[in-house]
Structure formats: C-alpha cells, structure tokens
Predict the 3D structure of the following.
Amino acid sequence: MALNIFAKQIAEDLQKKFPKRNINSLPKLNKVVLNYRVAESRESQEALAAAETEIMAIAGQKPMLCKSKKAISAFKLRQGEPLAYKVTLRSNRMYHFIQKLFNLVLPRLRDFKGMSASAFDDAGNYNLVIKDQTYFPEINLDKVSKIRSVQVTLNISATSKEESKMLLSALGFPFEKTN
C-alpha cells in the first residue's frame, strides 16, 4: 500500500517537470526482470536447487527455469538443458525490490561510486549486473556454495534515455557523479 503512494508521489514530481504532458504519458517503471545464470546445472541438480532457493529468496517469488532452445556443440550444450532462472516482478513486489536494491544492495558494493549512466538501451531500459549474490540481505552466507551474478533489467516506459534517467533519479537510483 505504501509503495503505491510512493509511485504516485514520483508521478507528481515528474508532472511538475513536464507540465504540458498527460499523466499517462509520463515515464514509469513497468517491470523488473532478474536473470540468474546457473552454468553448472548440467552436472549438478543440487546446484540447480540451491540457485532456485537463492533467487526465490532475493525476488520473493518462484522463478521460471529457462532451458536452451537449440543444441550448440561448441558450447557443449544440448537442447532442453537448464541454463538460468528468470523472475519478472511487477507492482508492489517490484517497488519493494527497487527500494531494497537502491538502499541496501548497491551501497554495499565494493568501491561503490554510483552506477553508470551509459547502461541504458535504445528503448530507455536500464541493465545492471551484480557480480555477487551475497550482497542481498536474504542470502544465507553459510549455504552459498558458489558466487553467481544477478542481472537486473529495469523496464521503463519512456521515449528517451533522458526521461528514463530522470525517472530513476526521482526513484533514488545512485548514478555516478560527473565532474
């Protein structure tokens, strides 16, 4: 409930910056997609199960198992083998995850000076990779067998990279300071 109020306040702040635009055309966060690659899943079902519990703890919902679509002999990959877990967060879970990411996880990164402003794609979505899943407070360090990276994609409905950056700044995203 409080997160919806948070989203409405952000919309009001953006409405002040774009006074001539309709409130429905303002940039907003559509969804957050987490990808959790499990490279050793071919050899070990235990690693796959451990990865599932870790991403479930991070996201707060059950992940979807992504399998390979075709066989590639150069990578020793067969069709239908498990590759990664994927979670799509929307609505309250999305805002809860964003709050946790911006306020707890990113400041804990080693030598953190802010996130790069050049990680936007052409559609205005932001992609970042956290190279160690143990930065998330839900992960039990005693049960971690291998360090894995978590890829986070912030899907934003914006017409330009500048609008996306403005939305993320209003949400409290820590961008790098430019001199």
